[in-house]
Amino acid sequence: WDETHFGKMGSYYINRTFFFDVHPPLGKMLIGLAGYLSGYDGTFPFQKPGDRYEHHNYVGMRGFCAFLGSCLVPFAYLTVLELSKSLPAGLLTAFILIFDTGCITLSQYILLDPILMFFLMGAVLGMVKCNTCADRPFSISWWFWLSLTGVNLAGAMGVKFVGLFVVLLVGLNTIYDLWDLLGNLSLSLVMFGKHLLARVLCLIVLPLVLYTAMFAVHFAVLNKSGPGDGFFSSAFQSQLIGNNLHNVSVPE
C-alpha cells in the first residue's frame, strides 16, 4: 500500500507537480531522483495497490531503496565492532540483520523506511566513530565523523520526524561528552569553548542548514499546480504554473 503512496510522490517530483504530505520532503525527493536517473518517466498512475507496472521502469526506485537497506548491514557491523571491539559480536550483528525478514521486506519496496534507517544508523555510526576519536580532537578524522553525524541527523529529520529520536540520542551523548570535558581540570576554558563551538557548528548549524536547503529544493522543483495547492495561501498558489491564480496580482 505504501509503495502506491510514495511511488506516486516520486512521480510528482519527476513531473514537477506540487503536492502536500505530512512527512518532510527528502525521502520522496530521493525516490523521485532515483526514478528519474533510472529512466522512469513519472507516468505510472499509482492508483491502487497491486496494479502491474507493465512497461514502466520502476526497478531503479526499488533498487535504490534496496541498496540503502543493504547498507544497514555494514553500518550495524561497524557500530557494534567499534563499541565492543569484538569481531564475533560485529559479525553476529551483521548476520542477524542479513537474515531479518522485516528488514529484507522493508528494503525491497519503494518506501521511506530503508532511507530513514540508513540515515538513523549512519548518525549512530558517526557518533560512535567520533567518540573513538576523542583522544585526538580537531583531527581530520574527528571533524569528518562529527560532520558526517550532522549530515545524517539532517537526513533522518528530512525523511520523517521520527528522526528526532536519533537527534535526542546524539544530543544526550554530546551533553555527556561536554560535561566530561568541563570536569577535566587540565583543559582550559578556551579549549572547552572550541569543543562547544565545534559541536554547535556540526550538530546544530549544519543539520539546520541542510534541512532548510531540502525545502528550498522542494519548492524550487515543484513549480506546477497539483493536489497540494489548497493547503497553501492564494499568494503562494499564484506562483504555481497552471493554477487558476497563476501570475494574478493578489492583495496582501
Keywords:
252 residues, mainly alpha, 11 helices
Molecular structure report:
InterPro entries: ArnT-like_N, PMT-like. One of its GO terms (cellular component) is endomembrane system. GO terms for molecular function: mannosyltransferase activity. Belongs to the glycosyltransferase 39 family. The chain has 252 residues and is mainly α. It has one domain. It has 11 helices and no strands. The model has no long low-confidence stretch (mean pLDDT 92).
Summarize the model shown:
With 252 residues, the chain is mainly alpha-helical. The protein has helices at residues 2-15, 26-37, 59-70, 72-84, 87-98, 101-107, 113-132, 140-159, 164-182, 189-221, 234-237.
Q: Measure the end-to-end span.
A: 42 Å
Shape by Cα distribution? flat
**Strand residue content:** under 5%
Helix content: 55-70%
Integer count of domains: 1
Structural class: mainly alpha
What is the C-alpha radius of gyration, as a whole number of Å? 22 Å
Low-confidence stretches: none
Please count the helical segments. Answer: 11
User: What's the β-strand tally?
Assistant: 0
Biggest sheet: strands, sense, closure?
none
Please state the average pLDDT score: 92
Order of helices and strands: HHHHHHHHHHH
InterPro entries: ArnT-like_N, PMT-like
Pathway: Protein modification; protein glycosylation
GO cellular component, one term: endomembrane system
Family: Belongs to the glycosyltransferase 39 family.
